[in-house]
């Protein structure tokens, strides 16, 4: 059999179903594309095999991965998936094949090129996940919802959902990813994914207009606090920027110059 | 009202900032009954412009103080603006900052107003209010006021995740000179009490699961560096003493920032000893995570830490007979002692060497600082040629960074044989 190009729906379960099919039909893969990309690149349209996403298939693969490298190894691959990095599907497939082929603890083989690449990506996605837990800034709106906008480098909202749910169990909140145009919404039950229509303006000005009366006070106080804790004699802007890279500043109210 | 509270915040945050502790970890308080917050994430929500982690709302309840410690901005004789928060103000600030994801919790300290118990009682009341009235499960760190009663300290421990008393000056003589109203005995007493309580609570918890928590994130302390002419030997040994005798979670080191014209202290404009502070933190890590004893790092022969190289490297250079370490065979404890190898890379080495014999190129990929490590290791396909070099020369190579040429020369030579 020659090499095949496979196409899946772009979801994590879809990719796991694809991996299932690779084992079931003994495909040898030349490329993996998502349906969206496939439409754009006519190149593949003829010889493309479409994978059907099915819970049974993805669950089997999940179980297989967890049995061989544990929950942690599985989550690492999910991180790689959310990195949206080019070629991530093939990397995940190859790594799974390696994991399932080797007996012990293969996810700890730091000397293996693919494993190492996985770890590298996991490191940067984790860093972004961690940064989002830190840098999300809620603004209280008139209707009692705590609202935050984010623009993460990777698609990390699924990775921070539980953290915010556990922590802010008694308040309504929304975290919206403006880059990927979807958000998380919590109002006391389960966290839901939401999308805003284009009529919703998500700039700071519109949000301020919808802000609760106490919002300006606490935002100003936080801004003030940030200035007060600074020790001038120790100033080290290089270190500061290393910890809080400039691209995050526009969503951090302590970094915004406040008038008055 | 907005501007008044803003002024208070600026005064009382400014006065609290010299306490460098920022940790919000070590406790795993769960969010109970759909309340607010939890601990355990230990997040730095932002960093100051001097690069320090901001994880807690760190403020004083008041900067009024009846004491006159020379190194402190809040000392009685200092001519500064004074302010005091009300209990409710601190509670509101904490809750509102927390809900906006600015902070992990509250770090509350205070100058001594009227007397120790009067002050301590208010600190405790704030923590109690947060826990009981607001079902707040975020992090609370309370400073124990020297001289406060055991009853109040006990109550504080019921609500706080962490308690701390800052020793500030590691030597009794230094303390007498700079903080005549304080003495070590009085400061050690509550440390001992808290340490015993924590132990006791742990024991009781084994038998009765519902035993209430007592300062689950333990206690910490801080020492000021460079205010009282103390040596690193004294500081490091004091730290080790705290870690072993009182099971301290953390000891913090704060380079003295000159704030006074007092002749007993470094003059205003003197540089903050940041490098020394950093070397002390590195030493602290060696004590806590690398299995080092204080004596191995600073002793009567070497009472001061090297400023130009890190303490692990200087230990290695003084103990060349322990090297080279074979990374494919050596036990974990010895891998940890290789300069340039951190805890994480040591663990990676142990995991990876199960799969294949490690070579230099593997080690490079594991994130080891090879510019240091290469003088102290041997591995597959790499013979250590530096082991019998004098440590002074190795130090010189590392510092000048010009050693790469030397390595090349050696390896081409090696290929010839
Ligand atoms: S007791 Fe505390 S607040 Fe008061 S002067 Fe001494 S160090 Fe400062």
TrEMBL record, chain A:
InterPro entries: DNA_repair_put (IPR023875), DUF4130 (IPR025404)
Domain DUF4130, chain residue ranges per copy: 87-254
Domain of life where this protein originates: Bacteria
Protein name (Swiss-Prot/TrEMBL): DUF4130 domain-containing protein
Native species: Sphingobacterium pedocola
TrEMBL record, chain B:
Cofactor(s) the protein needs: [4Fe-4S] cluster
Highest taxon listed in the record's lineage: Bacteria
InterPro entries per record: Aldolase_TIM, DNA_rSAM_put, Endo/Exo/Phosphatase_dom_1, rSAM, rSAM_sf, RuvA_2-like
A Pfam family assignment: Radical_SAM
Assigned keywords, A-Z: Iron, Iron-sulfur, Metal-binding, S-adenosyl-L-methionine
Classification via Gene3D superfamilies: Aldolase class I, Photosystem II 12 kDa extrinsic protein
Residue ranges occupied by any Radical SAM core domain in the UniProt entry: 60-196
Keyword Metal-binding attributed: yes
Name of the protein this chain belongs to: DNA modification/repair radical SAM protein
Taxonomic source organism: Sphingobacterium pedocola
């Amino acid at each position: 059999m020659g090499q095949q190009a496979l196409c899946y729906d772009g979801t994590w379960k879809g990719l796991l179903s694809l991996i299932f099919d690779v084992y079931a039909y003994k495909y040898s893969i030349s490329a993996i594309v998502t349906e969206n990309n496939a439409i754009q690149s006519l190149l593949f349209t003829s010889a493309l095999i479409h994978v059907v996403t099915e819970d049974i298939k993805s669950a089997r693969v999940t179980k297989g991965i967890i049995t061989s490298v544990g929950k942690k190894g599985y989550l690492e691959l999910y991180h790689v998936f959310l990195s949206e990095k080019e070629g991530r599907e093939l990397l995940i497939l190859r790594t799974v094949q390696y994991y399932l082929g080797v007996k012990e603890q293969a996810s700890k083989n730091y000397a293996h090129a693919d494993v190492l690449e996985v770890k590298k990506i996991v490191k940067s996605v984790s860093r972004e996940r961690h940064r989002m837990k830190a840098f999300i800034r809620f603004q209280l709106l008139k209707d009692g919802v705590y609202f935050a906008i984010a623009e993460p480098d990777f698609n990390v909202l699924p990775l921070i959902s539980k953290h915010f749910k556990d922590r802010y169990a008694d308040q309504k909140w929304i975290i919206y990813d403006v880059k990927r145009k979807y958000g998380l919404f919590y109002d006391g039950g389960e966290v839901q994914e939401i999308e805003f229509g284009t009529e919703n303006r998500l700039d700071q000005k519109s949000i301020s207009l919808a802000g609760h009366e106490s919002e300006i006070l606490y935002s100003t106080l936080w801004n003030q606090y940030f200035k007060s804790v600074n020790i001038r004699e120790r100033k080290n802007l290089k270190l500061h920027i290393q910890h809080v890279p400039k691209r995050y500043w526009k969503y951090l109210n302590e970094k915004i110059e406040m008038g008055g | 009202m907005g501007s008044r509270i803003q002024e208070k915040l600026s005064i009382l945050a400014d006065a609290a900032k010299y306490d460098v502790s920022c940790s919000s970890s070590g406790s795993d308080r769960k969010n109970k009954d759909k309340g607010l917050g939890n601990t355990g994430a230990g997040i730095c929500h932002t960093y100051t412009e001097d690069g320090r982690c901001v994880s807690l709302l760190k403020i004083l309840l008041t900067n009024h103080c009846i004491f006159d410690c020379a190194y402190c901005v809040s000392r009685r004789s200092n001519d500064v603006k004074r302010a005091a928060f009300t209990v409710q103000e601190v509670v509101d600030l904490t809750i509102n900052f927390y809900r906006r994801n600015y902070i992990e919790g509250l770090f509350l300290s205070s100058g001594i107003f009227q007397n120790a118990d009067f002050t301590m009682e208010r600190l405790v009341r704030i923590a109690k209010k947060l826990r009981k009235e607001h079902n707040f499960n975020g992090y609370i760190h309370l400073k124990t006021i020297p001289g406060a009663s055991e009853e109040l300290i006990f109550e504080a421990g019921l609500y706080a995740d962490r308690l701390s008393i800052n020793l500030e000056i590691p030597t009794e003589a230094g303390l007498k000179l700079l903080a005549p109203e304080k003495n070590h005995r009085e400061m050690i007493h509550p440390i001992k009490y808290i340490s015993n309580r924590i132990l006791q609570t742990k024991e009781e918890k084994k038998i009765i699961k519902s035993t209430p928590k007592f300062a689950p994130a333990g206690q910490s302390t801080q020492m000021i560096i460079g205010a009282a002419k103390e040596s690193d030997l004294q500081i490091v040994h004091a730290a080790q003493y705290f870690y072993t005798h009182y099971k301290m979670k953390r000891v913090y080191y704060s380079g003295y920032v000159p704030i006074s014209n007092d002749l007993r202290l470094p003059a205003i404009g003197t540089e903050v000893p940041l490098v020394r502070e950093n070397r002390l933190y590195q030493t602290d890590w060696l004590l806590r995570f690398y299995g080092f004893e204080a004596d191995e790092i600073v002793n009567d022969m070497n009472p001061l830490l090297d400023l130009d190289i890190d303490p692990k490297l200087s230990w290695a250079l003084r103990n060349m007979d322990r090297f080279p370490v074979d990374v494919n065979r050596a036990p974990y404890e010895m891998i940890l002692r290789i300069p340039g190898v951190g805890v994480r890379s040591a663990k990676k080495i142990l995991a990876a060497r199960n799969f294949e014999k490690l070579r230099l190129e593997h080690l490079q990929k594991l994130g080891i600082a090879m510019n240091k490590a290469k003088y102290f290791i041997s591995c597959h396909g790499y013979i250590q040629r530096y082991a019998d070099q004098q440590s002074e020369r190795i130090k010189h190579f590392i510092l000048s960074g010009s050693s790469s040429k030397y390595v090349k020369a050696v390896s081409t030579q090696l290929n010839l044989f």
